Amino acid sequence: MFEINETPECIEMIKERRNKELKLNDFMLSEKNRLAEKVDYYTPLLKDLRELAVKSAVRKEYSNNESGMYRGYYCPSPVDDLIIGGCRRGKLLKRITKGTNLEREYLFDSNNRLVAVNSLLDWKAVRTEVLIYEDNLVTGIDIDNYDNSVSEISECTYNSDNKIKSFLTASISSNKTIKTTIEEIELEKYSYDKSGLNEVEIISYYKSCKAIKNIIKKSFEDNLALETKLDLPDCDTSYERYIFHHDNDGFIDKYVIINPYGNEEYKALRKVKI
Asked: DSSP letter at 77?
């Protein structure tokens, strides 16, 4: 059991934090509904989208040895492998034999655009992500090739300098008997200064954990007055800011995480210019 300081200052601070969380929660819930509608729109077109992407491919690349990166070597996020331990993009393979362990197959069109990504198992494409280009927006539809359903959806937006502005990923419910449901969303928003990548905001929407709900409920059951003052709802959204620092050569060498619980400074897991 943890204790909560019931001073007016503490209550106001928690209220302010909760109000911000509620606004984020409302935003992510609206995104959840929007993405579900987008999945429903593309679902009848999956077969045609996949065939068109494969037909337009004029060049292929292969990769392996990745870990935890969306889309592997060509993950749009410039920060995941800078801040998450054990997260690897993998490597592109220059030489392939029958014994090579392949994880991804990347298909490029005549404009050198990535149009599809096959996730491979024993050289078979078990999932195919089709990329759809619309002005400054790239939508990725990840198709389960066994039942022709959407397992994930992503969106990338770019600015006029072709730098990534935002990267959104969302997982789709695996329950095929219910209507399309978005289970988890993560949104990364990027900003730049003269040094390069300056700041990233990461907003995550996820299913409520019953265990955490019960802990919160238990902590307030003997203090109903405080519970009323704080007006604590279930919250499924988290928010963090990352401030990146560059060394004299322009490489990102460290970053500061800013969240409701304080600031923490870390060394970047690898040095890179962005």
From this structure: -
